[in-house]
User: Which sequence fits this backbone?
């Protein structure tokens, strides 16, 4: 009996490693709508958090708001044996840098780093924004609660830190409140430059901007739908890379798109009640968000947000006009929904930070042959690899084969021309790296 049991156990552990990690369900359940409501309320009560607003008052303006955010991160840290490194990262922006900068201003981000045990210099980032605005982007004194835009994203980021600081991860997680968003994405620009300067290995940024409204201007009410925006290919690609895409593919397979697919996949696995929408564009039509400066710097970055916006409740002076109550006030935020999108972030941060790094190179071959062949660089800490493939018209990685701890594999009978392929590294507990689209031709 005994040897058979051992054999069976071995079989299960080698062939059937966990596809789901029960800790992920614990994380989902730990996210609290009540704490998010409390934090959104606190943020809205600073009156205005406009980037150019008062920095001296203890109760009103962006100075009071960022000091409170920093103290919250420090409080979270003191509950986990100082597991967070909390600091301000700031840059001076001069008056007239653009029309919205009407006086010199320090754009100050609040950063909290939960250092990874195995890859301390590898980072996955979750961001929300500190700042708010009303109808006139240069109006830095009027009441601007910015409850949904973007106290919701900021509160979600604080809550994710509270929940995840109870765990240890192999890679580092950064929780950050970015400032200067409404004035021209200044905070993101500053932190992306800081990351480059420090040589941070950034897996990507999950930028949360408006995660609390479920009642859309389109008449749709849904607490299940949400959007994942991602650009198709990085703006930093070379002419040579652009040219290669014509012949080998990759038009919709840049690093940000792979991160978006990762979030989609994790959500579908652990929160199947949610409806993540893969939006094939950088951001909303003609509008921007704080993932963009990271994309500009060559990092992967996506925007996570509600699916159904309400324009009478964003960037508006608080007023009633023709019977419509304008303004981004507390009453319009659905905290149960903000909790769900916070959980989406938390489980993806955890999964990426528990998972191994992705293979650096993935080679593909099989031209005029019946089989597609893939070869990849070994990842320290991976227990195996998955080869993913999909129809060329599919937005998601629909097929995969787990191939164990090898660095090459031939997919028999799968013709290279008819699918797109990628490789992910798999860690001990089944957590995966993002998929890497082939970046080399196998000859
Ligand atoms: Zn906004």
Assistant:
């Amino acid at each position: 009996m005994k040897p058979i049991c051992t054999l069976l156990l071995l079989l299960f552990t080698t062939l059937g490693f966990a596809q789901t990690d029960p800790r992920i369900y614990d994380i989902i359940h730990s996210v609290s709508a009540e704490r998010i409501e409390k934090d959104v309320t606190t943020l809205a009560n600073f009156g205005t958090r406009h980037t150019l607003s008062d920095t001296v008052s203890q109760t009103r303006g962006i100075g009071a708001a960022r000091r409170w955010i920093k103290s919250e991160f420090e409080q979270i840290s003191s509950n986990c044996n100082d597991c967070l490194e909390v600091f301000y990262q700031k840059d001076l922006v001069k008056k007239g840098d653009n029309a919205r900068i009407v006086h010199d201003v320090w754009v100050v981000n609040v950063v909290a780093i939960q250092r990874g045990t195995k890859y301390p210099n590898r980072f996955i980032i979750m961001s929300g924004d500190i700042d708010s605005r009303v109808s006139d982007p240069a109006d830095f004194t009027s009441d601007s609660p910015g409850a949904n835009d973007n106290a919701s994203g900021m509160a979600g980021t604080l809550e994710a830190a509270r929940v995840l600081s109870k765990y240890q991860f192999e890679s580092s997680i950064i929780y950050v409140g970015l400032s200067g968003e409404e004035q021209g994405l200044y905070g993101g620009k500053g932190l992306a430059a800081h990351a480059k300067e420090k040589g941070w290995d950034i897996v990507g940024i999950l930028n949360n901007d408006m995660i609390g409204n479920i009642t859309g201007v389109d008449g749709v009410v849904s607490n299940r739908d949400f959007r994942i925006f991602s650009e198709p290919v990085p703006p930093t690609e070379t002419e040579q890379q652009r040219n290669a895409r014509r012949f080998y593919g990759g038009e919709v397979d840049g690093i940000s798109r792979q991160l978006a697919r990762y979030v989609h996949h994790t959500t579908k696995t652990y929160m199947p009640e949610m409806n993540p929408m893969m939006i094939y564009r950088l951001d909303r039509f003609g509008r921007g968000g704080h993932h963009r400066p990271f994309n500009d710097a060559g990092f992967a970055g996506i925007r996570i947000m509600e699916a159904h916006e309400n324009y009478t409740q964003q960037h508006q002076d608080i007023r009633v006009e023709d019977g419509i109550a304008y303004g981004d006030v507390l009453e319009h935020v659905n905290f149960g929904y903000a909790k769900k999108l916070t959980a989406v972030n938390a489980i993806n941060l955890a999964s990426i930070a528990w998972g191994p790094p992705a293979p650096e190179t993935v080679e593909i071959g099989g031209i005029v042959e019946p089989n597609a062949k893939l070869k990849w660089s070994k990842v320290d800490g991976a227990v195996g690899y998955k080869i993913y493939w999909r129809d060329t018209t599919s937005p998601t990685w629909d097929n995969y084969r787990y191939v164990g701890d090898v660095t090459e594999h031939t997919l028999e009978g799968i013709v290279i021309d008819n699918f797109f392929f990628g490789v992910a590294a798999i860690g001990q507990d089944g957590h995966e790296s993002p998929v890497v689209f082939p970046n080399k031709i196998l000859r």
About this structure: Residues 8-16 have pLDDT under 50 and may be disordered. The chain is about 30% helix and 25% strand.
